[in-house]
Amino acid sequence: MPSAKRLCSLRSVTSWRRSLCAIAFAFVATTASATAVRAAEPLLAFAARIAGDDARTRIVVEFDRKPEFSIHYVANPVRVIVDLPETSFGLKPESLEPRGLFDAIRYGGMGGGTSRVVLSAKGPVEVSHAEVKPQEDGKSFRLILDAEKIDKARFDELLVDQQWTGTMRAVKTDRPVAVVKDPGAFVIAVDAGHGGIDTGAIGTVTKTEEKHVTLAFAEELVATLKREAGVEAFLTRDRDEFLSLPQRVQIARQKGANLFISVHADTLKQKDIRGATVYTISDKASDHLAASLAERENLSDEIAGVPLQSEPAEVADILIDLTRRETQAFSVNLARTVVSSFEGQIGLINNPHRHAGFRVLQAPDVPSILLELGFLSNKDDEKQLLDPVWRKKVSGLLAAAVRRYRETAVANGG
After folding, report:
1. Which domain of life is it from (predicted)?
2. Over the stretch 359-388, which tens digit does the pLDDT of each residue have?
3. I need a surface site. Which of 181, 345, 348, 395 has the fewest CB within 10 A?
4. Which residues lie closer than 8 Å to 115 by C-beta, 6 or more apart?
5. Phi/psi class of residue 86: alpha, beta or left (left: φ > 0; alpha: ψ in -120 to 50)?
6. DSSP label of 116
7. What residues does CATH 3.40.630.40 cover in the chain?
8. pTM here?
């Protein structure tokens, strides 16, 4: 029997039938194209719910299309990792409020076309049942996870049997490492803190997530620095994606950075505290506030479900030794120059140069600072952090500080 396409092309077919055939084939082609485009788009998680107690807990997440998924476990602390294709999470925050076996639930992008749900457990747990079911209307799907409490021996068996190390599939970035255009340029890595599954702090008034605040400022700072003669600047992340702390260091070193500036905007319980702070690395924290902040920032990888052993060996070796003394001295010099540039121009916290053991500052050969722009827990700071005019002003002050630092470093042979 001739194909439909051949039948439509026969001379015996009347012109009006040929027109109908043309319309039909155009419809098929359009439908196929739309299907392909939809398949390339991220999944949409549009609803979720959780129920259970300290013995058993069920989690249900609804998607617009059938999701592929995999489940893994991480210890110290116990976490259940659910890896997904790239997913847009349109969930109400209260829909996955932790309860039952879980005391924290986070979800978001991991970069490289993947997303993740991280279920932090109160103790050893096992997902005893996991399946995807179509909804009755056939237009959406439910991912159902049933978890139950188990003993440590059983959990240890799960860790051994899964043959999973949290490797780079879930944490890699799909961006190639760009080559610095001018080999003689002074190169600056600007690191927008947090991203993807790791949202960072949440604004008190606007509920803005820190990851968006840091990226907006980092983009402004890079644009400002690029206007400096002989300077090249780049972002460690240029989108809402997760990068592990070691990856941020790696990207800076691979691109030959002369400076590394990590941008943050944290929250504090004391809502009256406000102003910018500049941190450098030290094996001993300068004060309780610095120690507390470093502890929280160093949890970024844990929040995303990345076990320490998944870090590349090159970076893991770096983490063993504290930053070389010479590099640390340059970092302190940069921090002091930044504070000097800020004084009298923008608000600073008391004792604005502080230090603690920030893992993101541990490149052995790149002078590094962590800039706390202000606190999202303070309504006045939050307002400034969201103000493009304020961001432009602070970026200009930072660029001036970098210029003076560079002049001093060159004069001293650095």
Report:
1. Bacteria
2. 999 888 899 999 999 999 999 999 999 999
3. 181
4. 42, 43, 83, 84, 85, 86, 87, 89, 107, 108, 109, 197
5. beta
6. E
7. 186-411
8. 0.81
